[in-house]
Amino acid sequence: MENAKGRLITIEAGDGSGKATQTNALYDRLKREGYDVLKVEYPDYASESSALVRMYLGGDFGDRAEDVSAYGASAFFAVDRYASYQLKWKEAYERGAVILADRYTTSNMVHQAVKLQDAAEREAFLDWLWDFEFVRLELPVPDAVVFLDMPPEVSDRLIAARAKNNAARQKDIHEKDSAYLHRCHAAYSAVADKYGWARVQCSEAGEVRSIEDIHQDVYNVVKKVLGR
């Protein structure tokens, strides 16, 4: 696939790790510095293309994440990404803009691969997913993936605090299963190593680092990619 002129930067992390906060902070800083930058978020809940994703996360196909196969669930998310790319950011990417993605294909590499216990099956799935989205669907490959590494025992506290502050918000089937989220953190670490993601530590001695300190580490990674 021929490389476009733009840059795609993906922010990845488990639930409760500050992805949206850090994506917004990076977006604001790059805008101030004069970059042509666009922010996207997955799932794209504002779009009809996320209908199957919403049904899956809402428990329509089963109350547990494992009730839907890694391949089936990945197809739901891939369709949502394809529609978003074609309709919302392909033009900007091809003109040379910086695209900041709060989650991307990289999330399925973790959240769906974790359903497969056998190492060989997991590797086969990751190969299939890469081919499906980046080759068959021709979605852009990220130029950098920044993994916000928040230990699960710390993110558990953050998720609980978020739930307390927003009691009306319903947890999805991933968020309801803390054991699943803990397995996802281990999978994040393994996949980050496999694909060479940049890792930013988000806690120190069991306490969350400041938003500003985490942001500076994220910014330092991204600046190397942008090369300005």
CATH topology: Rossmann fold
Distance between the termini: 25 Å
Largest sheet descriptor:
5 strands, parallel
Query: Which structural class do the helices and strands define?
Result: alpha/beta
Catalytic activity: dTMP + ATP = dTDP + ADP
Family: Belongs to the thymidylate kinase family.
GO biological process, one term: dTDP biosynthetic process
EC number: 2.7.4.9
Protein architecture, described:
With 228 residues, the protein is α/β, with parallel strands linked by helices. The chain has one domain (7-226): P-loop containing nucleotide triphosphate hydrolases (Rossmann fold, 3-Layer(aba) Sandwich), CATH 3.40.50. Helix content is 52%, strand content 14%. The chain contains 8 helices and 7 strands; from the N terminus they run βαβααβααβααβββα. It has helices at residues 19-32, 51-57, 70-94, 105-111, 119-136, 152-165, 178-195, 211-226; strands at 7-13, 37-41, 98-102, 144-149, 198-201, 203-204, 207-208. The strands form 2 sheets. Strands 2-3-1-4-5 form a 5-stranded parallel β-sheet, with helices on both faces. Helix 1 (19-32) packs across helix 8. The longest helix is centred in the middle third of the chain and has 25 residues, at 70-94. The protein is globular, with a radius of gyration of 17 Å. It starts with 6 loop residues before the first strand and ends with a helix. The mean pLDDT is 90. One of its GO terms (biological process) is dUDP biosynthetic process. Residues 11-203 form the Thymidylate kinase-like domain.
